[in-house]
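Q: Hi! First time doing this. I have a protein sequence and I read that you can turn it into a structure. Is that right? Here it is:
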Amino acid sequence: MTTPRPIKFSFLAREQSEGAGAVVRRSIGTPKLKNFTPFLMLDHFRVPPGAGFPDHPHRGQETITYLLQGGVDHEDFAGNKGTIGPGDLQFMTAGRGIMHAEMPVQSEDINVGMQLWVDLPANLKSCEPRYRDLRAEEIPVAKTDDGKVTVKVISGRSQGVESLKDLAYTPPGGTITQEVPKGWNAFAYTLEGAVTFNGKETITPYHNVVFESDGDVVTAHVEEGADQAARFIMVAGQPLDQPVVQYGPFVTTSKEEVYKALMDFQTSSNGFERAANWESEIGKTMGRVR
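A: Yes, that's right. Below is the predicted 3D structure, encoded as structure tokens:
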């Protein structure tokens, strides 16, 4: 027997300015949903030509970027470089410290995507920074038996397919039941169309839907013959039993560690040695359309 997870609450993610000229719909990391362990922030970003996220530091968390439209360049002080396109992902583990730039490709197109910040367990906050891409073609795809629902299985398991965070895409007229480990925090962020969760509440785009921790499945349904396909991201994570003390891009477990992170960054030490006088090449593309 499985028990559906009730919706705890949902809310509209409103637009705000971020970075240098970018616009984001932030849901996690706002007064409505702050420190939803292990999730720290969720941004649905839209970046026009000439804008971006130039050189900045991180410590103590992992960022996961999923691109919906356009392209995003990445460059960090460890020598990692890369570009992701639609359907690709970028995983960046800040660990003990990293300085990087994320610059949407400066074309005439609007660059659109999602970025999730995930807290690192206390014993991993001092790990060496890591970076890697996951290409769209590498992501296993699962389908429901009737072929009406397609799931890109990025992390975890869905419909018997395993891989590496679950991104679910629901065409008009379909139902999917996704298993969620008991006790894990789970949410869905709606991108397109109208989707009904657990047969009770229909959610429109740009809402973050937070589920109760009781229960072990979430069911999503789109009416047969709906005018538009529904598209949403579903994420679940194991809660971390630790304090969250965050100051901008520095995420620690105490105020003392935050002060130390600031001092380490300012003095280019204890993880930030390579930040001294470092400048990304892609950060210099600000304001240039190519």
